[in-house]
Amino acid sequence: MRGVVLLALLALGVSDAALASGKPSARPAPTTEQPKVSTSLRQRIAGCIACHGPYGQGGGSGGFAPRIGGKPAGYLYHQLQNFRDGRRVYPLMTWMVQYLPDPYMKEIAQYFSDQSPPPPAPQTPMVAAATLDMGRKLATMGDPARGLPACMACHGSSLMGVQPDVPGLIGLSNDYISAQLGAFKQGTRRTKAPDCMHEVTAKLDGAEIGAVAAWLSSRPVPAGARPEPAGSVKFPLQCGSIDG
Amino acid sequence: MRRKIFHGIVMLAVLGLVFLGWAVWMSGILHRSTPESQQVARSVPSAAAVATRKAWAEPQFASVIARGEYLARVGDCVACHTMRGGKPYAGGLATPTPFGLLYSPNITPDKQYGIGNWTEDEFWRAMHDGIAPGNKLLYPVFPFTYFTKVSRPDVDAIFAYLRSLPPAAQPNHPNEMPFPYNQRSSLVFWRALFFRAGEFKPNPGKSPEWNRGAYLVEGLGHCGMCHSSFNALGATDKNAQLAGGLIPIQRWYAPALNSGAEVGLGNWTDEELTQFLKTGVSVRGATYGPMSDVVFHSLQHLSDADLQAIATYLRAQPVLVSPGDVQKIEVSPQLAVELAQQGRQIYINHCAECHQLDGRGVGEQYPPLAGNPSIAMQPGTNAIRMVLLGGFQPGTKGNPRPYSMPPFAQLLNDHDVAAVVTYIRQAWGNNAPAVSPAVVTRFRHVPE
After folding, report:
1. CATH 3.40.50.2000 fits A43-117, yes or no
2. Domain spanning B331-442, CATH architecture
3. Is A15 touching B (CB cutoff 8 A)?
4. Which end of chain B is more exposed for a tag (fewer CB within 10 A), N or C?
């Protein structure tokens, strides 16, 4: 919603004088003077900013558009390709990106990766304390008996992700996280093979997915938090989503 | 009761026709060899040489393969014969039609699933006659009604190119069509009514450029598949060739390409049109929807000479039928006035920053809405969809960092969208009827 409000404010920036002259009239007289349009990337990607915000803070689409600002560029680039190639299914995203060349996708990914949106307020979990605790245990310790790695094992001990390909998991809404985990489990969100998020989520049941999503969405984003540097984490799984 | 009897009779008649078609087909009346195939000199190796893929790796065929690749681009084969994220030319893309869902086949040289066992003559027959090996009649969703005009050397070159691709072992997906359309024998009648095989005949009274454009537009380019209207049996209306049409099921409206009122190509300059086709943008407007797909996969790769030929041919197209009288008034006059008034404020709030208060837009970045036929053409549905969905211009070699428009589906309700679309259809000299909020509701889904 914030993105939408911002967009509306941008649009309202039209001056009063301009409004007064805006009466519908006959075909405009041709003039040689043309308004200047910024050639900046930010101007070009108004379509992205409408939902994700100029800093990638997310929020549009009824809170469902995820916070992408500050996420690792490789991860964001892969998601744009995944929407294009049908590994991720969200029709509006596919509609937006399907005819974008790879280098441009990379540039857009880098733009949002370079942003540092202000930390969002953590969500108050709507679940019982025991559920929250189950989520915390799964996220921080996993379940070695079931061969289930902790979220932290790949996404970094800060859960802010690892450069360049592993996304952060905090600062996202409960709805968004649980939808993504469910989609990985069902195979409607995929990565390049091997799809290790499918392997991991296949071992989780619905209650566990709810618990993990609730706990992650309740974590505050520390001010100035960034993804951990490349090479700082030794991944327990071989993942197609990590270029390596 | 009477209706039931009528339905029964119709069903029996259809059954009879299907059986008759099958009988005719089996009797071999139509199994004639194609004379053209014997007349045209071979530009590619003999069938014996084709038997092994290795033959195509020989350097002497490189130029034929390269020409075939270019021609395959002109025909935009990849767009239908590749599914999202799939291997190129391995098929599997579903095309919805009023007659059911048809899946494109694998046309890589895989021997089991593709065309690895096809001969050059068999490929020619598929392209020229719409008949695959085993006398399998092809559905006209495969544009053989256009490809029949493609020359034998060009078809052979495309075959050479397809044979040079890596084979993809991807099984074909069966079509999902109800009876009687799932009976290929029913195509015997369709073909008798709507299809004549025949090569392109140049018009000696026109320039070589015009003729080249005609060959591309009416043949490989198969522009009329979208830009003409279909009759109830899914055939292009001959009189409505390039006069604009609604793409069935997808419900995008492909505007007229003649010099009539809609796109009015007669008013464009050659430069504007060739730039539009090559880059997806121009000062007249940008491509969107299915046309962006065509520019992205096909037209941006065409030579300047071929684009100029297409422009020359299209801009010379006369108006055969006027779409003028099919404008439908969808709302009451009172509501139309209200919508336009409310739409003006919405336009000022959300649209004017880019498209300008006077609707003139800015250069190639933000298309003009004043005098833009995409806004004012007969159905308002394309404009409704653009407001709901926004989107990027296609990213092309000539416009690699395209501008974009925000989607407004989340921000504006059906009434607001109808209001702003009504406003832009009537402001600045545009003169099109209001659109109804009820129509907006039907277009809220994102096209696949």
Report:
1. no
2. Orthogonal Bundle (1.10)
3. no
4. N
